[in-house]
Amino acid sequence: MYDFTFQRPSSLADATRAAQAGGAKLLAGGQTLLASMKLRLANPETLVDLGAIPELAGVRREGDRLVIGAMTRHADVAAHADVRSALPALAELAGGIGDRQVRAMGTLGGSVANNDPAACYPAAVLALDGTVHTTQRKITADDFFQGLFTTALQEGELVTAVSFPLAKRAAYIKFKQPASRFALIGVFVAQTDGGVRVAVTGGGNGVFRHTGLEQALTRSFTPEAAAAVKVDPSTLSSDLHASAAYRANLVSVLTQRAVAKALGT
User: Fold this and answer.
1) Beta-carbon neighbour count of residue 86 at 10 Å?
2) Rounded CA Rg of the chain
3) Does residue 69 lie in a domain region?
């Protein structure tokens, strides 16, 4: 690592000021940033640790929504009684991220802000039509995720929480890349009064919605309806782990399984 200045603010106001300084990077769970620094792929002049700001962590119920603080650890989301009862698919997703050490340190806000193209949380935020709360505004999921490690966040803007509407039915299934435990393909399906949303992670430059699957499942929320939709491999990535055609087949199969799981069958 290179030399850097370490700050650990105890208030959101102090963190916002520190983040707006030139050369500053925010440290949430550190699962990506610290590894990048060790490899000298990132060289921040200042590292701002958000771990001492109490208002950034926790889960609360607000009407028909769950609001989860940005610094809430994966393990805490997975174990929280409100999440397990109101959005069990989200609790299960959090419990399947990485390994126990990653879940003990990684955070919801860090994952969402980083927007790794194979991360699990972005699929949940997008499929559930979540809203990302920041120090400046509220951003809908459809507007927030913009591509490979790219979001709508501006320089110095901090994620403070994510709010999730409650779904009638929801399920997440991923096919893990065995070494990293990231999703080779992950599919989150959510059925709401307004229709069905299907978010896919691991397939390319970032999380995306599959409109063909959404339309078919809105008409008939069954595995058979999902199976009838052709998934175009030309829109998916191909690498040493899997071809685009293999990923396309996974999207179809995992969507069918997610629907069956959401139906309890």
Assistant:
1) 18
2) 18
3) no
| Global pTM value | 0.94
Residue 206 contacts residue 123 (beta carbons within 8 Å): no
Cβ contact 132:162 at 8 Å = yes
Tokens read off for 88: 């069990």
Q: What is the residue type of 221?
A: F
Give the per-residue pLDDT at 160.
Answer: 98
Residue 17's SS3 state is helix
- Considering only CA atoms, which of 1, 50, 14, 12 is closest in space to residue 30? 50
Percent of the chain with pLDDT over 70: 100
pLDDT at 129 over 80: yes
Range 31-43 burial, b when 16+ CB lie within 10 A, else e: bbbeeebeeeebe
Q: Give the closest residue to 49 by CA, choosing from 8, 90, 11.
A: 8
**Integer Cα distance of 246 and 108 in angstroms:** 29
Residue 205 CB: number of other CB atoms within 10 A?
13
Does 216 map to a domain?
A: yes
- pLDDT at residue 1 tops 70: no
Give a yes or no: residue 257 inside a domain: yes
CATH of the domain at 27: 3.30.43.10
Over residues 123-136, mean pLDDT = 98
Give me the domain span that covers residue 210: 168-265
Within 10 angstroms of residue 120's Cβ, the number of other Cβ atoms is 25
Q: Is residue 12 part of a domain?
A: yes
pLDDT at 202: 97
Contacts of 4 (CB under 8 A, 6+ apart): 43, 44, 45, 46, 47
Average pLDDT over residues 228-237: 96
Count of domains in the chain? 2
